[in-house]
Amino acid sequence: MKQVFLYDTTLRDGSQGEGISFSVNDKLNITKKLDRLGIDYIEGGWPGSNPKDLEYFEKVKDLGLKNAKVSAFGSTRRAGLKAEDDPNLNALLEAGVQVAAIFGKTWDLHVQEALKVPLEENLAMIEDSIGFLTERGIEVIYDAEHFFDGYKANPEYALQTLLAAQKAGAKWLTLCDTNGGSLPHEIVDIIQKITPYLTVPLGIHCHNDGDLAVANSIAAVQSGAVLMQGTINGLGERCGNANLCSVIPNLQLKLGLKCLEENQLKLLTEVSHYVSEIANVVQPNNQPFVGQSAFAHKGGIHVSAVLKNPKTYEHMSPEWVGNKRRVLVSELSGASNLEYKARELGLEFLNDKAKMKQIVQEIKKLEYEGYQFEGAEASLELLLRRAMNEYLPGFHLESFKVLVEKRGAQEIVSEAMIKLRVGDKIVHTAAEGDGPVNALDNALRKALGEFYPVIGEMHLTDYKVRVLDGKDATAAKVRVLIESKDATSTWNTIGVSTNIIEASWHALLDSMDYAIIRKLSEDCQKKQEMAAGEN
């Protein structure tokens, strides 16, 4: 049985974050992911504010959600209007939802300075609005905006606003730390003081302006709140909202308070990465629980201990939230890192200490030159395969030439000519591109596509260049990182040189070589499985 209910406001509050904009289809797709995760309430938007949200509420009815109720967001009636005449409240009804979250003013400062109405009128606005919706069968979640700041300023009036919402029939009273400036001990103290006066269950809605939204949310639950509001990855206005990807595992795995089924909790990392992708936001690698580096180990001593017992350097099993353990190989690595990485990649690691030492020294030498394999694991796998004699390159470079030409006011034209040997055949071809790297990429694809169709299934998704030593100006060494992707996987490769074209070339070669080798390995494995099945 659930002990904490989850209210996700990614689609509404999260979309108010700088640079975040969801299309209607984006919102519908995220809704399906959140429903599969097991979220109880999904706040779809504010139907009275824009046509996009109206369209969302119309289309979401056809999704057939299994776990979540869709909630519409709105405000209390306007001053001087009857609830039945208020356009925002009527828009909530027209949205056709079962649940509505409406916010009202709790802080007397806002009532007097922003609304410019008497304190008594604000109480009437809260009571009228909630009563109007509940009488029409809507489950109302009352968001007490600025509650904690309001309580600190005028505790008696802040409590009166909650009592007005409770009297009108609100099912939940959500306490909002709207400015995100409260501390955990303040959250606890205030909730303990108001609880004796309330019969309606409490919710919590925290913003992260003090970097305490997760801590404040957990403190609120420990003090009695049972409805947790937040967003996936902490998206939201200013510094964001409470991050459900951190709140949920802390509540369930640390405090033993059930929020999700075990199989749903394992979807958390997938949902987190999906929302980042849809929002077009680079997810921090070091994001707790769901980040790529959340269970990554780099130091040789750490890795040696983790190989013996993961609990030595992990506070929980990454699989519980759908993440995975990663071991990084760098200049800080020891033999344990290489052994783990070889196992992870399915490579046969010879029990040869001299060989291991040789590989470690090679990696340290390359990292001294500017390579960084922890961000380019595909290049690392190729390096290990070469060292273990398990690497058969799919092609060999004979030569390449890149021309960049500009004539007068015309645009710059780039052309790459390339000569490759594939098996016993020589391929000589050329291609144009938007720049020299794009031209090389196009030429490689043109040359290899006939022999390796997998090249046509992959594409470059990111290209980064970093100057390693700025004091050398345009003669400085550069590091190029390329991210590639196909229908099922993403991989990263690296190249380093004082010549940006050469650095890019090495990263491109590794990217395509990796795609070819992986495809050949998959085909070989399928043949072995088929042969085993026949036997």
Helix content: 40-55%
CATH-level-4 superfamily name of one domain: Aldolase class I
CATH architecture of one domain: Alpha-Beta Barrel
CATH class of one domain: Alpha Beta
Q: Total number of β-strand segments?
A: 16
Radius of gyration: 29 Å
CA-to-CA gap between the ends? 48 Å
Content-based structural category: alpha/beta
Into which percentage range does the β-strand content fall? 15-25%
Specify the biggest β-sheet. 8 strands, parallel, barrel
* Unreliable stretches covering 5 or more consecutive residues: none
> What is the mean predicted local confidence, pLDDT?
89
Number of helices: 18
Question: What global shape is seen?
Answer: elongated
The name of the CATH topology of one domain is: TIM Barrel
Provide a descriptive summary of the structure in words:
By secondary structure, the chain is of the alpha/beta class. It has helices at 24-37, 51-59, 87-94, 108-115, 119-134, 147-153, 155-168, 184-194, 213-222, 244-254, 262-265, 268-279, 300-308, 335-344, 353-369, 377-387, 436-448, 500-534; strands at 5-8, 41-45, 69-75, 99-105, 139-145, 172-177, 202-206, 227-230, 296-297, 326-327, 396-405, 413-422, 425-433, 459-467, 478-485, 490-497.
Summarize the structure.
This protein has 535 residues and is of the alpha/beta class. It contains 18 helices and 16 strands. An 8-stranded parallel β-barrel has the order 1-2-3-4-5-6-7-8, surrounded by 8 helices. A 3-stranded antiparallel beta sheet has the order 11-12-13, covered by helices on one side. Strands 14-15-16 form a 3-stranded antiparallel beta sheet.
